Amino acid sequence: MLLTITNSRYPATDLSFLLHKHPAKVQSVEVMNGKAHVFYPAVSDEKCTCAILLDMDPVGLVRNSDGNSFALDQYVNDRPYVASSFMSSAISKGFSSALNGNCKEKPELVGIPLQLEVQLSVLSIRGGEELLQELFQPLGYEIIATQHPLDPHFPEWGNSRYFTVTLKHSITLQTLLSHLYVLIPVMDNEKHYWVNEEEITKLMNKGKGWLEGHPARETIVHRYLRYQRKLSNEALSAMTVLGDSPVTEKVEKPKLHDLRLQAVADEIARLQVSSVIDLGCGEGRLIKVLLENKQLQRITGMDVSAYSLEVAARRLKLDKMIDSQRKRINLIQGSLTYKDRRLQGYDVAALVEVIEHLDEDRLLILEKNVFNEIQPDTVVLTTPNKEWNITFTEDENKMRHSDHRFEWTRAEFSAWCEHIRDVYKYAYEIKPLGEEIEAVGAPSQMAVFSKQ
């Protein structure tokens, strides 16, 4: 596990004073089941980079585990290789003075924002880039994330939960380290030790000044405290007293993703059908909205990622549902590029932000499978509008997600819809999704295809 922190505020070597680590020395500290090595790959007045390399003992991890009954999982796992709660412990031990806001040599530096850039070489994010943005964007970070595939030789397997992440911000070093200390295990959604009441104190100390008003603080608290309701309620109650108004009183502008899901759900409700299949359901967000439609008696989610389906099951709380609700839902693993009889027999098929993740040749296979093999009565499909990208970037080639293979203009999407109409005999209607801007349209576009 490798984490680097770079300061480019002159003189950049101020970073070494704040970290209490001499640039000419390699220093190591003991952590549970391993060592954290601190060193400087680059040192100058213009740029200073400090790295912390966490070297874990895989055998030690097994010996000190909680006795996982699945023997293979003890030896074949990602813990030695990805940033997790082990990295938070390394930050706490290796950079304890900086994390606590102490600097002997130059105490005036503690409160000065630096030009900082952090890179996490491999970060486990159970929630994907959407969660990454949800956690760091409100804190003012510029975020660059590259998602890694499960296997580059088998693209149909989809992407993994692992990212290389770069974060940039003009911020004090203490604040940066407190963000990383709390949010790394939140993204990983796991901890290597038992969580008890002491964790509330850690969370309150490290989250002071930023967590109280964070729009995702409930998610952060629940994940950090490993979903222990009593501990979470105690922490949230304390933050409500110390912070601003309660989260339930905050009035926020709906996110584009939520608007998109609601628009698809509303379209399906308008059709008055009894069955729907969400093709590429991911972590079950659309299914959760569809459950409110009482007319739907059969709701199936299909995804290529087994992990995403596990997250969907937890998100939907399938294990706690009453029988009548549970019977409405089915989650299956599969691929849209293979014929599968399980996908047939539904009134509606939904593909929400799916097609842009496929290469052109695989898109052709998908369209044949959906419109020629599965043949639902209605297909509700959404995809980004490339023209809208000009509202946040001047780079005409920049896409909204690192895994997008293409993004279509409104004209290109319309041409593809006409192709579907002519080849597969599906009429279509295109609708904008999100607030429209003159000359560039809405952020996303939705097509509703009806079999003739």
Alpha-carbon Rg, integer: 24 Å
Helix content: 25-40%
Number of strands: 14
* N-to-C CA distance: 55 Å
What is the 3D shape? Answer: elongated
Beta-strand residue fraction: 15-25%
Sketch the major β-sheet: 7 strands, antiparallel
Secondary structural class: alpha/beta
Strand order of the largest sheet: 2-3-4-1-5-7-6
- Residue ranges: pLDDT <50 for 5 or more in a row? 241-253
Chain-wise SSE layout:
Elements: E1 2-7, H1 14-19, E2 27-31, E3 34-43, E4 48-56, H2 58-63, H3 71-75, H4 85-94, H5 96-99, E5 114-124, H6 128-136, E6 142-149, E7 159-171, H7 173-188, H8 198-206, H9 217-224, H10 229-242, H11 256-271, E8 275-279, H12 285-290, E9 298-303, H13 306-316, H14 323-326, E10 329-333, E11 348-352, H15 360-374, E12 378-384, H16 410-424, E13 426-433, E14 444-451
Helix pairs in contact: 4-7, 7-9, 9-10
Structure description:
- The structure is a single chain.
- The longest helix is centred in the middle third of the chain and has 16 residues, at 173-188.
- Strand 3 and strand 4 (48-56) form a beta hairpin.
- This protein has helices spanning 14-19, 58-63, 71-75, 85-94, 96-99, 128-136, 173-188, 198-206, 217-224, 229-242, 256-271, 285-290, 306-316, 323-326, 360-374, 410-424; strands at 2-7, 27-31, 34-43, 48-56, 114-124, 142-149, 159-171, 275-279, 298-303, 329-333, 348-352, 378-384, 426-433, 444-451.
- 34% of the residues lie in helices and 23% in strands.
- It is built from 16 helices and 14 strands.
